[in-house]
Specification:
EC 2.7.1.182; mainly alpha; transmembrane helix; zinc; elongated; zinc-finger; 782 residues; zinc ion binding
Amino acid sequence: MRSSLQRSELYMAVCGPACLPLLGLLAASLRLSPHELAGEGARHQLYREIACGSMGSAIYVVAPADPRSGYLPRFLLALLRGDTLHAAGRQLVLLAGSPEAAAATATAEQTGSSSPLAYAADLLYLVYTLIQAACVACQAPQTLQLREALVAALEGSQVLEHAGRALLLLRLHRKDAQLNSRLLDKVAFAANAAHTRVAGMVSACGSANGRAGRALADRLRAVVAGRCSRHAALCLGLAVLCDADGGPAYGMPPELLAALPAGKEDHAPDSRIMSAKAATQLRGMVRWLHRLGAALPGPRTTLALQFRVGWLAVASARALTAADRGGGGSGGTGGLAAGAPRRILAAGDLMVMTLDALQYSWPCLPPPTGVPERDSVRTAEAAGWWRLAAAVAADVLPYAPDGQAAMLGNLLDLPKGRLPVRRGLLSLPPEPPFEVAAALEGGLLRCLERLMRRAGRDPQGPEAAVLRTLGRLDILWPYLAPLLAYGEPRQAAALVATLRKLLRTVGPRAMLAEWAKWAIADGSHEGLLQAVFDVLYEAPLLDVSGAAPGEGPSPASQQLLRLVSCAACEWLPELAWAVVSEEACCAVAAVYTGPGPPAAVAGADRPGHSAPDDAAPATVGSGVREAEGAATGLAPAAGTGRADSTAAAGGTPDRPPLPWRPELLREAATQLRSYEEHEAAAEAEALAAYLERGGDGAYQATLRPSPLASAMPPPAEARRLLPGRCANPACANLEGDSEAGLTLKACAGCGAVGYCCRPCQLEHWRAGHKGACGRARGGGGA
């Protein structure tokens, strides 16, 4: 508290009576010549000490914990308008603007904290700290003057160019003294932080203050595209990347690569985990590359660098997972696989690094040209992006902190891939669109199935968050349809089979709850079962008249129709069972009668063991009798109603079911309307009209087959696409990445059926396969 108070008092003094003297002292220091800084004697020594002291004081003031605090914008504005960056840039040119000048500064005879090299390091540190502090202070509201002053100072002084050149040259020519190396390492990390802040400010200016903000962003973008600043930013990040993965340096001189900091000194002696500073340096390069756009090093080199960073994170995640499974932990080298990178990212850095690499590499992908020869190469490059995204979803996503997993869902969208299905189901082009082809080649279909299977195993996990984000973007039918139409048939059918298992895993109560949310949200509910609801609801509504006259559906349309037919056969029984199940009835009854389950329907465990068809109406009729008796004062004796209900549920009611009378429903509607229950009254009126038209027969007579029904293949033909399935009819095993990859183990008794796991074999054995297996072997089951 005391030091905080003293610091606050110092700030107030600097902003008040000490402001002008400090600025004057700093201005005098920035105008010293190299001879005055490097000369011999007490006078020159005093120059250096005063200059380094004033530089240190200025750095201390412009680098508080929160640069947006009230006084600082005024002090920063005074520094920027006082041409501090201009003077610093000119002095950097004199001290290290050329190899000869840098060598003279770095190898001067004077040593210690006031040597010319120490002063040059302090000067660089001041420049980068001032830029960083100004960028952060510009985030506060009402700082347009500060933003304009910063952009004008960077533009007019070209200090980022001078500082980038001086930093690299001083590192090349520095002595091997520990002090010098430590000073320049500190400057390198400050440079990376400043580069990152400036890159962020380009976006901030572009989205604020309308046209004026965009003009500032364009000017700032031109500043950061300078050759020397660009080269310095790339070299700083590339040194860390090469140290981690051992990849190429793209022509960087070996002596410069060896001289740049890779964060090795910050690592624990027995650890291969990359330090936080090194990871920040690497991330700064990724963001800086994004701001450079099409400037040097070029889109393809930029894409290669971004991919290297992304794959380093994937390899790091795999190494950490292997170490955890092997019991070696994630802190040292003992548990890491031999093929892991020399340096791996910490678990907390994995997701943010891959998200940056994916997000910032996407604009570098070349767009399609319409020329097949060229587009095949571009599809392969885009497929590399999807391959990385699929690997991130498989290996890095388990390490995602809260909130970051959803960001991957935004990146997995296919906005242009949705268009073909919306234009007509039967007129899909023979070849997939560019975006869909790249996504399929990169493994998106298998990636989605893996996400669904893992989400089924852990509905609160990061994979479920990714799927919910995808559903939030738009309905999933036009997203999945082109992948199913153009994907490998067996893999597409495996996704359909996985969704059936997901229905079984969720359970009837949760399934109906999700359906209710989906219906209320008008199809935009982002639940785990949204894909099922969207496909079953949206597919029949599509226009199926798009095929050319005299021609049948295209091959892609035929495959999609087979898969839609297969989906209906696979999913509808599970949904139907959810509606008629006892658990679902309890959930519905609780809404109308309060807590507590209604009378159970005997044997209602699965659809094959449901109660007779007349049980439900009989039970309802019994309930209506009880209500009627209570209203007329002729209620049955205690226990009679329950026995009546039980008898009805058993299939042989004592009396025939009480018919629903339309006139009573209309009377109920009148009573409801008197209590202002208008919606319930309208429903009662509609039900009365329905009964007057003949009940079920009236409605069924008006139903017409969907136009899609005539185009769909028979279920038996559609089911041929499905991969070999477990013989257990109730199998809900979601282990593994794909249904197509499950290995079935033949029954040891008869060998006629296969099982995906031991629990399924035991369950099927108890369900009746024991007897069938014995008969197949020619003897009774044991």
